[in-house]
Design brief:
The complex is a heterodimer of chains A (268) and B (396).
Chain A: H1 6-13, E1 26-32, E2 37-46, E3 49-58, H2 61-74, H3 79-83, H4 87-93, H5 102-119, E4 130-132, E5 137-138, H6 139-149, H7 154-161, H8 171-188, H9 193-214, E6 217-225, E7 228-235, H10 236-239, H11 243-258, E8 264-267
Parallel strand pairs in A: 7-8
Antiparallel strand pairs in A: 1-2, 2-3, 4-5, 6-7
Chain B: E1 2-3, H1 14-24, H2 39-56, E2 64-67, H3 70-84, E3 90-94, H4 99-110, E4 114-118, H5 128-134, E5 139-145, H6 157-167, E6 172-176, E7 195-199, E8 210-214, H7 240-278, E9 282-284, E10 295-300, H8 305-314, E11 317-318, E12 320-321, H9 324-327, H10 334-338, H11 343-346, E13 349-353, H12 360-380, H13 384-393
Parallel strand pairs in B: 1-11, 3-4, 3-5, 5-6, 6-7
Antiparallel strand pairs in B: 2-8, 7-8, 9-10, 10-13, 12-13
Helix pairs in contact in B: 1-7, 2-7, 7-12, 8-12
Classes of the chains: A alpha+beta (268), B alpha/beta (396).
Chain lengths: 268, 396
């Protein structure tokens, strides 16, 4: 028994825009019969606006609902806006999908992407590397799902893309992709030391200090060196027995959450 | 509501409930106690054991151990046999067993056991030649279900036990009879069975009670250790009301076997032929006659099973599917795949399982409503050309 939202129920019971368009300007496909879900989407595009959209889906309730709501989301929209739709937008429009069913929203997104690719006559992406041979999932599809949905585990990747859901042989490769992604995003988010000082200072002033003042205490930023943040504590906090706990559990957690996971707080 | 999912679970028989109620109310004594108050609870278990003994034709009541479910029975049998035969590290089972059995063997494989999974043909029948060739002197256990939960196909248990005993007399034979109990006669002696498991809720007892038969020649340790209950083989205060219910359900089931074989089968056949004749993309996954009388498994080509079930549910019809989408796993039924069921109907396969409570009206209602549901879903399918082709081939 799935916990489907009212919207999912409504859309699989009364799917909108079922069918095909005879002289469609773009047709996109995703999935396959063997994999257990497959979707075709037809678009009519006039002056850069999607004027009509229809779909045909072989799949479960959430697959039909994802396709159905997707057609509603794009009809009447400029193509540039339609291009920005992610699988997460589709799932959100349905008030969410069960984690195991997120791949249905991904499939909707893939079919849309495929249609637009044809419309813009974009070169079919050069032979993409297939990671999961059971479900024909490419490295790019996995990468996009990780990026668009903030996935962190192999299980989540399976729920979103189906990769690794059958024989499981590609789970190691998926883990590698996750590791590479994490490394890359960590590098991208690396700050210069000045940015770091400014950000730490801002969080201390606007978030941490006001909280400590409530307890009759205060905090002063002394120095930042690498990931080490030196602070001085005043008032009730410095003498109170729980000051270490206060430091660890509040100042550090707050800075780690808002600035960088690597931060270490040192009381001076 | 039309309930056609009796291989998943069944309605508790009123008479079973009646049998149980005293032990949920005034007769709450612990059957192990010494005072007279516990006499009735004690006797209830004894009586239930006798009924189960008759139900499966065991030689002795001491061969009956009450458990909490079919999975516990299977685990106890498998783990027990293997732990008492540590030198033998080979197991034979089938590709179509229930997950409670299959996943247990997967664990043993990780521990270095060698497991052979015997295949089935397109109709779901076991490859007995393969079985013959796989049996070795160091085969500790052969583990084969009596009837398959998804297709209803009955395996030739007697023939299998003869094969086993002729090749390796010391090898133990465990039969998962969860889907056979209450549908066809079970005779452990006649069929040469060493261990056999059943589950109450599949034949109108409540969930939470099962049984493991262990013949006198077979010795296994307990799975749950502790007290002396069930001759030390299954610790834990006896679930008196449920055990009493299981006994009653077995007694009723024995009397009902003829009705199953005739009337339930007639309704099942009516449903099956009705669906196949009125829906052009319906495909019977196995047509062999050697099936339990209550089960049929029908694929609807080019549409998906979960979607069919959801629409049936809106009409008050309960059935189940081997589709990947319903299980939470991403893979479709391992049973239908082992049978080589084509992808066109694999994901759209629906299992219909009847019971003694199924009526003619139930079947008529399904036959009346189903064609429109399938027609509606056919329209959503991206495989319009394939459906048209199929229609033309069937001359519709």
């Amino acid at each position: 028994m799935w916990d489907y939202s009212e919207k999912v129920l409504d859309h699989y019971r009364n799917p909108r825009n079922v069918g095909s368009i005879d002289n469609a300007d773009a047709i996109g496909e995703a999935g396959s019969l063997a994999c257990g879900d497959s979707l075709k989407i037809y678009l009519k595009i006039d002056n850069g606006i999607v004027t009509d959209a229809k779909f045909q889906t072989f799949g479960c309730g959430s697959a039909v609902a994802s396709s159905s709501i997707l057609t509603e989301m794009i009809i009447g929209k400029p193509i540039e806006e339609v291009r920005k739709i992610t699988n997460k937008d589709i799932a959100d429009a349905l008030d969410g999908l069960p984690p195991e069913k997120m791949h249905c929203s991904v499939m909707g997104h893939e079919a849309l992407e495929d249609a637009l690719k044809h419309y813009f006559k974009e070169e079919a992406a050069q032979q993409e590397k297939i990671v999961c041979t059971c479900f024909n999932v490419t490295e790019k599809q996995i990468w996009d799902a990780i990026k668009d949905n903030g996935l962190t585990t192999v299980e989540e990747v399976t729920n979103y893309t189906k990769a690794g859901g059958a024989c499981g042989r590609c789970k190691g490769i998926i883990q590698d992709i996750l590791n590479t992604y994490n490394k890359k995003s960590a590098e991208e988010s690396k700050m210069t030391s000045t940015q770091m000082v400014l950000k730490v200072n801002k969080i201390i002033e606007t978030v941490i200090a006001p909280e400590l003042e409530k307890d009759g205490g205060g905090i002063e930023l002394i120095d930042v060196s690498g990931n080490k943040v030196m602070v001085k504590l005043y008032g009730r906090c410095s003498s109170c027995k729980n000051s270490l706990v206060t430091l660890k559990s509040f100042v550090e957690t707050t800075l780690r959450e808002k600035v960088s996971k690597e931060i270490e707080v040192i009381q001076v | 509501m039309i309930y056609l999912d009796n291989n998943a679970t069944t309605k508790v028989d009123e008479k079973v409930l009646e049998e149980m109620l005293p032990y949920l109310k005034e007769e709450y004594a612990n059957p192990s106690s010494m005072y007279d108050f516990s006499r009735k609870a004690h006797n209830a278990i004894k009586e239930a054991r006798g009924k189960i003994k008759d139900f499966i034709n065991a030689a002795n009541e001491r061969e009956i151990i009450f458990t909490s479910c079919g999975s516990e029975s299977a685990n106890m049998a498998i783990k027990g046999v293997l732990s008492y035969n540590p030198a033998k590290r080979h197991i034979i089972t089938t590709k179509v067993e229930h997950p409670c059995v299959l996943n247990t063997y997967k664990e043993y494989e990780k521990q270095g056991y060698e497991v052979d999974y015997i295949g089935v043909n397109n109709s779901g029948e076991l490859d007995l030649e393969e079985l013959k060739n796989k049996i070795r002197k160091d085969t500790a256990l052969v583990s084969i279900m009596w009837a398959n939960n998804e297709t209803g196909v009955i395996f030739p248990i007697k023939q299998i036990s003869e094969i086993i005993k002729s090749r390796s007399p010391e090898t133990k034979f465990f039969v998962d009879a969860v889907q056979a109990a209450g549908k066809i006669p079970i005779d452990v002696q006649e069929n040469g069975i060493d261990l056999l498991g059943i589950s109450g809720h599949k034949f109108h007892a409540p969930k939470g009670v099962g049984m493991l038969y262990i013949n006198a020649k077979t010795s296994i340790p307990p799975l749950i250790t502790g007290g002396h209950q069930e001759r030390g083989l299954r610790a834990g205060t006896e679930n008196v009301p449920y055990i009493a219910g299981l006994g009653k359900a077995a007694e009723l089931a024995a009397c009902n076997l003829e009705y199953e074989a005739k009337e339930v089968k007639r309704l099942r056949d009516k449903l099956e032929t009705g669906i196949l004749s009125s829906i052009f993309n319906a495909r019977l996954n196995t047509s062999i006659t050697n099936r339990v009388p209550n089960t049929t498994n029908i694929g609807f080509e080019y549409i998906e099973g979960e979607l069919i079930l959801l629409h049936l549910s809106d009409l008050g019809i309960c059935a189940s599917s081997g589709s990947a989408c319903t299980s939470g796993s991403l893979e479709p039924s391992h049973v239908l795949r082992a049978m080589g069921t084509p992808f066109t109907s694999l994901h759209g396969s629906i299992r219909w399982s009847l019971s003694k409570y199924t009526t003619e009206q139930d079947i008529d209602y399904v036959l009346e409503k189903l064609p429109a549901v399938i027609e509606k879903l056919n329209k959503i399918s991206p495989f319009q050309r394939e459906l048209e082709h199929l229609k033309a081939c069937k001359g519709v």
